[in-house]
Specification:
alpha/beta, TIM Barrel, eight-stranded parallel sheet, two-stranded antiparallel sheet, 12 strands, 19% strand, globular
């Protein structure tokens, strides 16, 4: 049995950063979660920089997830991640320009795969095509892949399991993990990481945000 998947707490709801993200982090910084992040919208950049800096000062590993599809928007998101000195840039449609920017700025890049539209995002495509696409990006030097498994219009359980098994790089399963049933499926698929954001703000795991984070961490680690 390998290492359990790691929770990334996303201070987001409906694919947007919550306006009180700073206060929520302050209330939850002593929880069991080590990985934290949020989206590129709508907080002002200066506030993003301050919050990511505070997270890092608290010993957290940091992630910016960018929900963008055009090259211009994706590059702008990468620039925000660099300005915030994040550890990881997640999301964006893959572009060589974004990949090169991340390499130059010491950002670990984890792009989306598949056909993605909307916000909140919807994922379409065949499992085979997404695996092939992921391995092409990995050959170009990306760190890993951001898979919107539970936003998939097909069978997410099969996608997640097949994708993780056939992609030889870190995979984050992101979006709409909002029940213990889906957490069980995450344990079965065994990705490197998974994200939860909106489910905490909708109280899907019953308790304060900090209590819910600790419940999820304990469940994933078999406690």
């Amino acid at each position: 049995m390998g290492t359990a998947p790691e929770l990334i707490v996303m201070l987001t709801h409906n694919d947007l950063t919550v306006t009180d993200a700073c206060a929520v982090f302050e209330q939850c910084k002593d929880s069991k979660a080590k990985f934290w992040g949020f989206k590129e919208e709508p907080l002002p950049l200066e506030q993003m920089i301050q919050l990511f800096g505070h997270m890092k000062n608290c010993g957290k590993t940091t992630f910016l997830e960018v929900v963008a599809y055009s090259e211009r928007e994706c590059l702008e998101g990468a620039r925000k991640a660099a300005a915030c000195q994040c550890d990881y840039l997640m999301g964006t449609t893959f572009f060589d320009s974004v990949n090169n920017f991340c390499k130059s700025n010491h950002l670990k890049y984890m792009p989306f795969v598949g056909k993605i539209t909307g916000r909140p995002s919807v994922l379409e495509g065949t499992i085979e095509d997404m695996i092939r696409e992921a391995n092409e990006y990995i050959a170009k030097g990306v760190y890993g892949i951001d898979l919107l498994g539970y936003r998939y219009t097909g069978d997410p359980f099969i996608l997640n399991k097949e994708f993780v098994a056939n992609v030889k790089a870190p995979v984050c399963i992101a979006g709409s993990i909002n029940s213990y049933e889906r957490l069980r499926e995450i344990k079965t698929a065994a990705p490197w990481t998974f994200t939860i954001g909106g489910a905490f703000f909708e109280n899907k795991f019953d308790g304060t945000v900090k209590e819910q984070i600790d419940k999820v961490c304990d469940y994933i680690n078999g406690q």
